[in-house]
Amino acid sequence: MKRTLGIVLLTAIIIILIHSYIQIHSNEPTDEMLNDDALSKSTNHAIDLEMTEAGTFRISAEVMVKNDSQESWSDMAFFFVPNEMNSKSNVAEVNSISSAGHQMDYELNNGVLFIELDSELLPGKQQTILVEYSLTVPEDGLRLTRSENNIYLAHWYPMLAEYDTGWQVNAYDPKGESYETGYGDYAITYRLPDEYLITTSAPDGPAQASSSGTLIGKTIKDFYAAFLNPADWQVTERKSGETELRVFVPAESAILEETAELSVEAFAFFEQNIGDYPFAELDLIANDGYMEYPNIVEVPMDEALLDSILVHEIAHQWFYYLVSNDPYENAWLDESLTEFSTGLFLSDYYGDEDSGFQTAQAYKASTTPKPYADLALDEFDTAAYYATIYGEVPLLMKGFFDQQGGNEAALEFLAAYYEEFQFRRVTKQQFRDFFEGYFEGDQQEFLNSWLQT
């Protein structure tokens, strides 16, 4: 495919997007894929979801939590953000929270749900929490949204926070990801008043309309589900390696083939050059959502934006999902590596080592980046966040690898990094240590130029 936009027009579109971006087999890895110090699956979710004729969901979320820390817990913390994503409106209303039939005290503020335990949960022990609530999905909401008779459930259930000498929680911030969750297993039972196309983080199988069923997903960070009106969509399914790519575009769209072809090209490139994708299915929904979730991405309806955004969201499956990090404190570990990977693919796709980084250049040019990338999310304003995380850091890495052997050397580094940290949570220090160990000589000057010591 040839570029359809000139550099000037593309830059203008990207700068506009910077300011509007935030508004808008078994699926289980084998044991060999999990390192000894990998993130343990400390949660199992059994969620019953029923949609009424009026469109409201009645939800019972049963979460089995294991205390994998070395400390006793007197409470548990979950991210529960439906109301925060939608102007703090009454999108979700908690009816009760209990454990073993006993009602529990709780507090929900700024998207963080603290549940008080009746007795301390000792290290190595587990406890099951039941949260019962109703959910009204708003029209034109942020991420959690309804568009006519199409429903997108993002961040719709209580998500257990990470524990590290205390619960790692932050107030909800829409400019990026203000929550961090570990890997878990899911069994989602759904009942709907009509038949919908089902597309979720679990393996859904052939794209057939359904009104009820149970979805089983394993080793998933956060579970996404969309219920799509069959009349509104056209679907194609493509195979890449061992993974089925299911592509959903609006019924009136003329870009089904272009979306599917680019998806296969990008997916195959990342799998061949960075590392195997250990899941059976990846879904792509062209709803202009511009977001990544485990085993599913929301991508553009506009063909002109496919390469810069669709490829980025696919790359997130490697850096965000398969290699995890704290996106509040160190968004660069997933967003910057993802945008850097996107640039490497596009450069290869267009046969020019530099052409794939036009989007990063546009982000950087939109405003002055911050001097360091490892600032917390609330230390950025929106424009500087995108200029720094999506622009400055990918270009810094591009410049570094140009001195190390070019794009091929960059892909070799990313492949080694992925192999080392697959299904693990990476910290800034672990990245620095790996970077130093990978290259000969002292790399502190380069790292200190954009990461605080």
Please describe the topology of this protein.
Layout: H1 7-20, E1 43-51, E2 56-66, E3 73-79, H2 82-85, E4 92-99, E5 102-103, E6 106-109, E7 112-121, E8 126-136, E9 145-147, E10 150-153, E11 159-160, E12 162-163, E13 167-168, E14 184-200, E15 209-220, E16 225-228, E17 233-240, E18 243-250, H3 256-273, E19 281-286, E20 291-293, E21 296-299, H4 306-315, E22 324-325, H5 335-350, H6 358-365, H7 382-402, H8 407-421, E23 425-426, H9 428-438, H10 444-448
Parallel strand pairs: 1-14, 18-19, 19-21, 22-23
Antiparallel strand pairs: 1-2, 2-8, 3-7, 3-11, 4-5, 4-8, 6-7, 9-10, 10-16, 12-13, 14-15, 14-16, 17-18, 20-21
Helix pairs in contact: 1-6, 3-4, 4-5, 5-7, 6-7
Query: Considering DSSP H and I runs of 4 or more, what fraction of the residues is helical?
Result: 25-40%
Under the CATH scheme, the architecture of the domain at 7-26 and 236-448 is: Orthogonal Bundle
Largest sheet: 10 strands, mixed
Approximate strand percentage: 25-35%
Shape: globular
Mean of all residue-level pLDDT scores: 91
Low-confidence stretches: 1-26, 30-40
Termini Cα gap = 43 Å
CATH class of the domain at 7-26 and 236-448: Mainly Alpha
Number of strands: 23
Structural class, judged by helices and strands? Answer: alpha+beta
Quote the CATH topology of the domain at 7-26 and 236-448.
Neutral Protease, domain 2
Number of helices: 10
Could you give me the name of the CATH homologous superfamily of the domain at 7-26 and 236-448?
A: Neutral Protease Domain 2
Radius of gyration: 21 Å
